[in-house]
Every structure is written in C-alpha cells, then in structure tokens.
C-alpha cells in the first residue's frame, strides 16, 4: 500500500518536470532564419525591398531582390512553399502588369518602335525597359510580403507584437483573423466538393464559373458570420476582458546581439540605397 502513493507522486513529479521544462523554453521552429524575431525579419526583408526600388539600376536591382528572396526561402527550408507561390505571382500578376505597361507607355523620341497601333498603343525599347522595371519592382515588394508570411507563423508574429506592447486582446483578434482566412479557404474547398457531388457544374468556361460562384460564396459567407460571432464570444470565455495580466505559456527567444546587428545592417542598406538614389 505504501508504494502506490509514491508511484503516483513520482508520476505527478515527472509530469510537473515535463511541463515546466516545456513551457520554460522559448518557442523555436528549428531553423536559424525562421527563429529570428519576426519584427527583425520584417525589417530585413523590408530593407531588401527598399533597396530593390531605390537603387539606381532599373532592372538589375529588383532582379537581385527577387533572387535574394528565393535564396532566403531555400535557406529557411520553405522553398517548396514559397517558389511555386512566387511563380504564380509572376505568371498571374507580373505578366498582366508587364503587358499593360509595355503597350501603354508612350515611346521616347530616340526610342526604337517595334510595333504601333494608332496614337495610343506602341511597343518600343523604352516601354519594354520601363515595363520590366515596374513589374520587377512590384514583384519584389510582393515577394518580401509573401516570403515574410511563409517564414513567420501567425502565432510568432502575435507573440512578437505582444512583446513590444500590443495588448493580448488585439493579438487575439489579429491571430483569429489570420486563422479565419485559412478556415474560409478550407470551407470553400469543402463547398466546391459538395456542390460537385450534387451535380452542379463547377468547371468549364468563364460564364459557367461565374454562374457557379454564387452557390459557393453563400455558404462560405454564412460560415464567416458564424465564426465571427464565435470569436467574439471567445474573448469573454477566455477571460480577455479581465484586468489582470494573463499567463503566457509561449514566448519567443530574446533578441540577441546578432539580431540587433542584422537590424543595423538592414537600416544601413535601406538608408544607403535611398541616398544613392538621390545622389546618382
């Protein structure tokens, strides 16, 4: 009879030691780049984007910026997620921007005109260079934003914002908003599969897709309204309105000297590129 309480006490102590060790360690993702503080990583990616826009090399600078984003994704172990997404942005958004800009920019006097139609549409050497510059700049800015959200989970971003003074209620609202986007994407796929199972044509030409849009959007919209109400009730159910400081079971690693140096380098890159753009 004496061994049973000791065994239970030992199990309780082991569980206590396990949870103390688990929640006393900072939350890490196992990659040096992804374990950077999200705000530090944001400053670094923003500096690359600013340099891509400001440096006085119209096509080379944004091209290097786009390549750097791909390299960072590979080093961070997110190449399979980021590269296909980035290619879709280039093919979908970038190609449209390039086509629109290349024909709508008026050729300069000394430019070589390859094709023209009337007084408004023309394809020239200057329009190609300007369209390439504009498209690569936009893709560089989009790449910085897309890579940031590929590298940083929403949970880490909220922990970083909470660490600089953002209230727990605000972080919960922002985090639930990110989560609702993911939930709505999953819900839309479920609705599409359900409509296909009912015999509704969801694929085909443009007009058929437009006709199938409303049977999809209505259930998704109703689900979004229900989730909004649930998240509003969760603020009270999880004691977010209590004035006392809440317990925090997850926290990020402290920002060390290396990360502060990265912030300094990022500021130098951003300010230096702007100065070069003004001087040159």
UniProtKB/TrEMBL annotation:
Listed under GO cellular component are: plasma membrane
**Where is the protein situated, by its record's location annotation?**
Membrane
Asked whether the keyword Repressor is assigned, the reply is: no
Query: What InterPro entries does this protein map onto?
Result: ABC/ECF_trnsptr_transmembrane
What's its membrane topology?
Answer: Multi-pass membrane protein
Listed transmembrane segments: 36-53, 59-77, 89-107, 127-149, 206-225, 257-279
Q: What is this protein called?
A: Energy-coupling factor transporter transmembrane protein EcfT
Q: Which UniProt keywords apply?
A: Membrane, Transmembrane, Transmembrane helix
Name where it mostly resides.
membrane
**Keyword Cytoplasm listed:** no
